[in-house]
Design a protein that fits this description.
Layout (H helix, E strand, L loop, with lengths): L5 H14 L6 H12 L4 H10 L7 H6 L33 H46 L3 H47 L10 H9 L6 E9 L2 H8 L1 H18 L4 E6 L2 E7 L3 H17 L2 E2 L6 E3 L3 E9 L4 H17 L5 E3 L2
Parallel strand pairs: 6-7
Antiparallel strand pairs: 1-3, 1-6, 2-3, 4-5
Length: 351
C-alpha cells in the first residue's frame, strides 16, 4: 500500500473508516493513514489483533493506541463540531466515538435552543414593558388637554406593537419547531447510544442500565455466550462474512430467548439478562437458544461456499438484582470457560 497509487490509499482509508463506523475526524484519518501506509508495521499488527474476530475499532481504541492528528496529514475538510464543554480537548488527543460526538452536538444544539427561548422571552418582555411606558405617556398627553396627539400616538404604538407581537409569535413558532426536531433527534441519539450498530441488539450500556433498573429483590440470571472458533470464520471467509454470521447469531439468540434481554457485550460475546425465572426454566431457555444456533447452516454470500455449523458456548450465573452485576457476570464468564474446556457447544451453570 505504501508504494501504490495515493488515490488507492485514500480510497482504502475511506473504506476503513466506513467499515469501523468511524467519523472522518482528522485524528481518525491520520491514524488510519498510518495503519494502511505500513500494513506490516507494529501499529498495523496491533490493530489487526484488536479487530480480530470481527471487532470494530473505536475512538477510544485509537486513543489507547496513541493515535493523534498528525501535522500536515492530508485530511478532509470538516466544520468544527459544537461542544458543550467549556474548553477544547488537548492538542493531539483523539476525538470521541461517532455516537458520542453526535450526542454531544445534539446536546449543544439543545442548550442553544433553550438559550434562544430565554432570549425570545426576554425580548418580548422588554418590548411589552416599553409599550406600556409609551402607552402611559400617551395617556398622560391626553389628560394634559392634547387628546388628538395622544390618540395618534396610541394608534401608532398599537400598530407597532401588533407587528412586534406577530414577529415574536413567529420566532416562538420557529423555536418550537426546532425544539420538536431536536427532541426527535435526541431520542434517536439515545437509542443509538444503547444499540450495537452491527447486530442491532442492545449493547453493553443498555444491558448494564437494564440490570441497574431492577428492584433489588428481583431474581435474575446472567448468561454469557461466546461463538466457538469464530476466528476460523474470519480467517477462512473474511470479516464481511464474519459480520453477517455475528448478526445472524445475535438475531437467533434474541428470537429464541423470548422474554430475555439479549445484548452484544463485545466482540463475538453476547449476554442475556433473564428476570424472574427459576433455575430449570432459565437453563432450558438458554440451551434452546444454543441449540437453535447450532442447527443453522451458513453459506458465504459471495462464493456460495458452505460455512457449515457455527456453535456457541455459554455460562449462567444466578442471583438477585441486589448482587453486584460485575460479580455475577464474572461468575457466568467463568462458567463459559468451563463450557469451552468441556468441548464447546454447551451451557454450564454456576453451582
Amino acid at each position: 500500500m505504501a508504494d501504490g497509487d495515493p488515490l488507492d490509499l485514500f480510497d482504502a482509508i475511506g473504506e476503513f473508516l466506513a467499515d469501523h463506523r468511524l467519523s472522518s475526524e482528522p485524528s481518525h484519518y491520520a491514524f488510519v493513514h498510518e495503519v494502511l501506509r505500513d500494513p506490516d508495521g507494529a501499529l498495523a499488527q496491533r490493530v489487526a489483533r484488536l479487530t480480530d474476530g470481527g471487532v470494530r475499532i473505536t475512538g477510544s481504541d485509537i486513543a489507547a493506541l496513541g493515535g493523534t492528528a498528525a501535522a500536515g496529514a492530508p485530511v478532509p475538510s470538516r466544520p468544527p463540531r459544537l461542544a458543550i464543554v467549556p474548553t477544547p480537548p488537548p492538542a493531539g488527543s483523539a476525538t470521541a466515538d461517532p455516537v458520542q460526538a453526535a450526542t454531544d452536538a445534539l446536546l449543544a444544539r439543545t442548550e442553544a435552543q433553550v438559550a434562544g427561548f430565554s432570549d425570545t422571552v426576554r425580548s418580548i418582555h422588554a418590548e411589552t414593558s416599553g409599550f406600556g411606558r409609551d402607552l402611559a405617556a400617551s395617556a398622560a398627553a391626553m389628560r394634559g388637554h392634547d387628546p388628538l396627539t395622544g390618540i395618534d400616538q396610541i394608534a401608532e404604538l398599537t400598530t407597532a406593537m401588533i407587528g412586534r407581537v406577530r414577529d415574536a409569535e413567529q420566532r416562538l413558532a420557529d423555536a418550537e419547531r426546532e425544539a420538536d426536531t431536536l427532541r426527535d433527534a435526541l431520542d434517536e441519539a439515545r437509542g443509538c447510544a444503547r444499540r450495537d450498530p452491527l447486530t442491532d441488539l442492545p449493547n453493553r450500556r443498555a444491558f448494564d442500565e437494564a440490570f441497574a433498573a431492577l428492584a433489588p429483590d428481583t431474581p435474575v440470571a446472567i448468561a454469557v455466550c461466546d461463538i466457538d472458533h469464530f476466528k476460523r470464520v474470519n480467517d477462512d471467509f473474511g470479516h464481511a462474512v464474519g459480520d453477517r454470521v455475528l448478526r445472524a447469531i445475535g438475531q437467533t439468540l434474541a428470537a429464541e430467548a423470548e422474554g430475555a434481554l439479549v445484548a452484544r457485550y463485545g466482540g463475538e460475546e453476547f449476554a442475556m439478562l433473564i428476570v424472574g425465572g427459576d433455575r430449570d426454566t432459565t437453563v432450558t431457555l438458554v440451551d434452546a437458544a444454543r441449540s437453535a444456533v447450532a442447527a443453522r447452516r451458513f453459506r458465504s454470500r459471495e462464493t456460495d461456499t458452505p460455512i457449515g455449523s457455527v456453535t456457541i458456548s455459554g455460562g449462567i450465573a444466578f442471583g438477585t438484582a441486589a448482587d453486584c452485576r460485575e460479580q455475577l457476570y464474572a461468575e457466568a464468564d467463568a462458567a463459559l470457560y468451563r463450557a469451552k474446556a468441556a468441548g464447546r457447544n454447551r451451557i454450564v451453570c454456576t453451582a
